[in-house]
Amino acid sequence: MNAAISLENVYKTYNNRSVVKDLSFTIEKGEIFGLLGPNGAGKSTTIRMLTTLTKPSQGQIEISGYDVLRDSMLVKQSIGVVLQSLSVDGDLSVWENMEFQGRLHHIPNPKRQRLINQWLEYVELGSRRNDLVKTLSGGMKRRLQIARALLHQPQILFLDEPTVGLDPQTRRRLWEIIQGLNQQGMTILLTTHYMDEVEYLCGAFGVRTAGDNRKPGRIGIMDSGKLITLGTLQELRSESGEGLLVKQVGEHWEYLFFPTLREASNYLNQQEDKTGMMVRPSNLEDIFVELTGRQLD
Ligand code: ADP
């Protein structure tokens, strides 16, 4: 089987209420996959089930071909996890955080030191190895979390809102790090609230280096526990409509999708009164709002 991650009819129920409902999809090896959804959609619960932190109530989940319930140890060995809740220890140094993780995974020396050095260099923290983590910036802490998650050489990396609360330059640097990992073959699943993040990492808009023949990643949108759409950015745009007519009506805006930009323009040209109307290509945020009926918060 070639899938890195596979879910089949997965449910999670709390107090008789299903917060994840009948979720089925697969992520291929080497793919970068963005999971989007409004707050409460079930993204974190899904990530927690995929990373063995909580058990599915029903259905089957396989990671690298291992069942999350039967083979949870093997699943844990094949994944790296960066969650908001699994933060680094501020009272330890950068190196001590890495050393602790390396020992947890029983990585013997000198390999452990080699991997610690390798990953600290990769996330540009080599020069901060002896500093206490509480003296690092938010972006550095996040990079340390990523280095720590990669220490045991997993094939799949889970990132739950990796750039939340970071400034634009720091976010861009993290995107490059995440993209670099994917270019090296790492399968990545990330959740985020930021549309530009998904467009950059999973869309066709990301910077592509020469000779980089990767396929664009895919995007899944969840709402009320269900996966409501799944595809590449281009597929989602084709499905919803690539052309958008934006029209101001009183205090608010109306959005009208057309299959192509030309059709949206034709429609606009036919209007006698074009006041408050404009045409532009649709983007992921337009599609998200159209499908979930809500703004991100
Ligand atoms: P998201 O990450 O998309 O914001 P979550 O997976 O955190 O969504 O939450 C989905 C729903 O599940 C929410 O309504 C939340 O209140 C509920 N939920 C999450 N964890 C628990 C829990 N441990 N007990 C009860 N309800 C929970």
Automatic annotation (TrEMBL):
State if Nucleotidyltransferase is listed as a keyword: no
Pfam families in UniProt: ABC_tran
PROSITE patterns referenced in this protein's UniProt entry, alphabetically: ABC_TRANSPORTER_1, ABC_TRANSPORTER_2
- Asked if NAD is a keyword of the record, the answer is no
Keyword tags? ATP-binding, Nucleotide-binding
GO MF annotations, alphabetized: ATP binding; ATP hydrolysis activity
Positions in coiled-coil regions:
none
Per UniProt, residues of the ABC transporter domain are 5-249
Protein name, UniProt field? ABC transporter ATP-binding protein
- Which species is this UniProt entry from? Mastigocoleus testarum BC008
